Amino acid sequence: MYRVVLAVLAFAAIACGSRSPSGGELRDHAGHVIALEGPAKRIVSLSPALTELLFTLGVGDRVVGRTRWGQDPEAALAVPSVGDGLNPNIEAVVARHPDLVLFYLSPSNGVAIERLNGLRIATASVRLDGLADLAGAARLIGELVGARGVDSILIAFEAQLNEVTAGNQERPEVLLLAWDNPPIVIGGASFQSEIVERAGGRNVFADEALPSLPVSIETIVAREPDIVLLTGGEEPTFADAPEWQAVRAIRERRFVIVEGTQFAYPSFRAPEAIRELRRALDPHR
């Protein structure tokens, strides 16, 4: 597959008047008080990025449910899947007997959150769209689970990011193509765009303040990309289609093909993704 996974999950009203595990009132990224009286012991994560973050914080053994997309780290595969994170199966979530359910911050799953709160199951909506959000997400979840060493993880991560981020140099123009029919490209509000920029490339649709957007092939031609970035591991079949021959980078098979969830969502593996992209982009400078 050469498709970039763009997941949209949930947020809504959360019961007020509760105390955080550290003893004070704690609000999620939707601004609502989290109804949790102590460190969470049984967690269902409805976001692959949040599932990985829980394991990074050393509390993977408390994750009792994940979405079918939450496949990293490898240990997460041993956790039962509750299905999709978008409009989740509430019965499957409740069957895991969680004391906390984590959602990606989005208005899509308000009904699901209200139902869980009605069952006295704590929920928290967490913003995790770009690398800058990792610190806030890690600190919030660290507070919810009573994790230690969060600041040390963040300091080490920032140092790694600074080490791998490309400096001023010639930057190839990169088309991040998420889908071919109809063409859907990655815009400047996406994590994928961010790591391309840090790797020393320039997203040809970085001026579009959206994570992704549909465009015409003619629009792509006008942007004149030097290379096409795809995910999936193999050269796409659509590249042989007559209509795509108008795009020089596709006609000349100038592809960079990457694989792995480190390219799909923000995580502490981002330096690894940036380093790999830098190596792939170097021949095109």
List strands and helices in order, with pairings:
Blueprint (H helix, E strand, L loop, with lengths): L42 E3 L2 H9 L6 E4 L23 H5 L5 E5 L5 H9 L3 E5 L6 H13 L4 H15 L8 E8 L2 E4 L4 H8 L3 E2 L8 E3 L2 H7 L3 E5 L16 H4 L3 E4 L11 H12 L4
Parallel strand pairs: 1-2, 1-3, 3-4, 5-7, 5-9, 9-10
Antiparallel strand pairs: 5-6, 6-8
Helix pairs in contact: 5-9
What features would you describe in this structure?
It is globular, with a radius of gyration of 20 Å. It has helices at residues 48-56, 90-94, 110-118, 133-145, 150-164, 191-198, 217-223, 248-251, 270-281, and strands at residues 43-45, 63-66, 100-104, 122-126, 173-180, 183-186, 202-203, 212-214, 227-231, 255-258. By secondary structure, it is an alpha/beta fold. The relative contact order is 0.15. The strands form two sheets. Strands 5, 6, 7, 8, 9 and 10 form a six-stranded mixed sheet that branches. The protein has two domains: 43-160, Nitrogenase molybdenum iron protein domain (Rossmann fold, 3-Layer(aba) Sandwich); 173-284, Nitrogenase molybdenum iron protein domain (Rossmann fold, 3-Layer(aba) Sandwich), CATH 3.40.50.1980. The two termini are 26 Å apart. The chain has nine helices and ten strands.
